[in-house]
């Protein structure tokens, strides 16, 4: 029954829902819409909008583990019991917005009000939200756990849960010492867990809890990078978006190589503003890899500078949300930058980078950005502003301080370029982790006269640092070496 009564939208019908097993399968799509069969009252709102209202009853709050609201057509706002329905992170698109039922629901009657584009004649069924109540059994760790920045003193973990929960991570060192940390209640969880002095390897377990609901993952075993102060092994790759099966294959190959950590040069997803795409395109295909290999990222253009990005990764320093970061591991300094920021000769970003380089005594320095300065790939003909900044500012600055190499993505291929000392250093494009592969431009020497190796198929790089050298090998998915390079320590 749908009533059209302008100026009387507070007259409504009530639907009573008895909570028995609202989400037996533990996923939003399996839960029942408590508004099915509800009678809505509609009224004209401000110009071009319509407001619809309904009431539903929750008989037993203890049976509700979670709450999700899927917006109706043209919806502008939605409230439950006068509280605005909004996602955990603003400006992110959710197929169904996850909510904490403790903050929105009351025992007995609950009121939902939806404002949407339309008028008093609009069919309420078309604009009505879908409201799902999830049973405690729906609790799961949906993203991760995935490792972020790691040091001899601590390691970091990010994960997301299906229900609003507290996540506790417990680590046990190779010497048998336990450490732990817990997150605040919510859907996104970012934890820094201390490590006992002298830890060379550890196992960890993540447990999510909320009332009667719980879920766990682990144990996973992790090696602390360069715990001997000398040897260090890391992978480099980027641009995995779109083809999840390809990224799964690359991630699986990297996992078999067992690096201490992975540098990822951006373009994890097709469009960063979508909540579900982060699991589907990035985290799920590499789930095993990320449980034991820390990910050190930089942001790419396809992330669209979305607000979810800093919540889904834990970079070195501060609260782990910085897009420009640096960390020395053993004898190696790693630097990551957001190439879309301003990088002019004398701005604050460049001064920060020069300060990091100037102060470093590391034997090897690698800087990672999404944007190549020199390429003979698909972006060669029309270099964007961040690419020109890499070419004209960042690479010469790296050369000034005798850095080892710059690692980039953006072009969906592998390319190694050896620049003369007045223009830069070794530049390695490793952007073939799953995004649509692209070949070399015609007349490549016109665009990149410094190119030494170009390869347009799925691949990844492994860097092996020892006391007196760093060896890089680039592998295809059959384990064949397609390129290699040895770097000497900085002088």
Outline the secondary-structure elements.
Blueprint: E1 2-4, E2 14-17, E3 40-44, E4 49-58, E5 66-70, E6 75-80, E7 83-84, E8 97-99, H1 101-104, E9 108-117, H2 124-127, E10 130-134, E11 141-150, E12 154-173, E13 178-182, E14 186-194, E15 201-210, E16 213-223, E17 232-237, H3 244-257, E18 261-264, H4 275-283, H5 287-292, E19 295-297, H6 309-312, E20 325-329, E21 332-336, H7 348-359, E22 364-368, H8 385-400, E23 405-408, E24 414-418, E25 426-430, H9 444-447, E26 451-455, E27 459-465, E28 470-476, E29 481-487
Can you give a write-up of this model?
This protein is mostly beta strands and 491 residues long. Helices cover 15% and strands 38% of the residues. The protein contains nine helices and 29 strands. It has helices at 101-104, 124-127, 244-257, 275-283, 287-292, 309-312, 348-359, 385-400, 444-447; strands at 2-4, 14-17, 40-44, 49-58, 66-70, 75-80, 83-84, 97-99, 108-117, 130-134, 141-150, 154-173, 178-182, 186-194, 201-210, 213-223, 232-237, 261-264, 295-297, 325-329, 332-336, 364-368, 405-408, 414-418, 426-430, 451-455, 459-465, 470-476, 481-487. The strands form five sheets. Strands 1, 2, 3, 4, 6, 7 and 9 form a seven-stranded mixed sheet that branches. Strand 24 (414-418) and strand 25 form a beta hairpin. It is globular. Mean pLDDT is 91; it is low at 1-29.
Unreliable runs, pLDDT <50, ≥5 residues? Answer: 1-29
* General form: globular
Mean pLDDT: 91
Structural class: mainly beta
Helix segment count?
Answer: 9
Rg is 26 Å
Described by strand count, sense and barrel closure, the largest sheet is: 7 strands, mixed
């Amino acid at each position: 029954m749908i009533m059209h009564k302008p100026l009387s939208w507070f007259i409504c019908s009530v639907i009573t829902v008895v909570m028995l097993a609202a989400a037996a399968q533990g996923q939003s799509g399996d839960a029942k819409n408590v508004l099915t069969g509800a009678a809505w009252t509609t009224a004209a709102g401000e110009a071009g909008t319509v407001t619809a209202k309904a009431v539903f009853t929750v008989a037993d709050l203890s049976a509700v583990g979670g709450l999700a609201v899927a917006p109706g057509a043209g919806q502008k706002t939605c409230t439950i019991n006068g509280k605005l329905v909004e996602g955990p992170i603003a400006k992110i698109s959710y197929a169904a917005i996850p909510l904490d039922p403790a903050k929105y629901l009351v025992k007995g009657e609950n009121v939902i009000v939806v404002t949407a584009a339309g008028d008093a004649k609009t069919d309420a069924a078309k604009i009505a939200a879908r409201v799902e109540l999830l049973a405690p059994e729906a609790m799961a760790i949906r993203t991760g756990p995935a490792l972020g920045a790691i040091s001899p003193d601590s390691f970091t973990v990010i994960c997301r849960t299906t229900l609003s929960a507290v996540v506790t991570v417990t680590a046990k060192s190779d010497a048998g010492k336990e450490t732990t940390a817990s997150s605040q209640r919510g859907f996104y969880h970012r934890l820094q867990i201390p490590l006992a002095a002298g830890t060379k390897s550890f196992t960890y377990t993540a447990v999510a809890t909320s009332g009667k609901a719980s879920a766990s993952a682990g144990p996973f075993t992790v090696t602390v990078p360069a715990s001997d102060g000398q040897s260090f092994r890391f992978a480099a790759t980027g641009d995995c978006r779109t083809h999840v099966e390809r990224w799964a294959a690359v991630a699986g190959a990297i996992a078999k190589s067992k690096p201490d950590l992975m540098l990822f040069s951006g373009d994890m997803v097709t469009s960063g503003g979508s909540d579900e795409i982060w699991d589907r395109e990035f985290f799920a295909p590499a789930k095993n890899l990320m449980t034991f290999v820390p990910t050190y990222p930089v942001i790419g253009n396809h992330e669209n500078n979305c607000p979810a990005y800093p919540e889904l990764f834990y970079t070195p320093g501060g609260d782990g949300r910085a897009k420009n970061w640096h960390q020395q591991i053993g004898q190696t300094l790693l630097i990551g930058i957001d190439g879309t920021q301003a990088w002019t000769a004398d701005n604050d970003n460049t001064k920060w980078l020069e300060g990091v380089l100037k102060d470093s005594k590391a034997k090897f320095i690698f800087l990672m950005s999404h944007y190549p300065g020199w390429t003979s790939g698909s972006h060669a003909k029309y270099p964007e502003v961040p690419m020109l900044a890499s070419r004209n500012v960042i690479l010469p600055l790296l050369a000034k301080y005798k850095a080892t190499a710059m690692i980039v993505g953006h072009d969906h291929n592998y390319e190694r370029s050896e620049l003369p000392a007045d223009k830069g250093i070794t530049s390695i494009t490793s952007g073939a982790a799953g995004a649509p592969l692209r070949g070399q431009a015609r007349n490549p020497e016109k665009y990149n006269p410094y190119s030494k190796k170009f390869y347009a198929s799925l691949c990844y790089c492994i860097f092996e640092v020892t006391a007196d050298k760093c060896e890089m090998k680039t592998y295809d998915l059959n384990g064949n070496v397609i390129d290699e390079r040895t770097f000497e320590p900085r002088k």
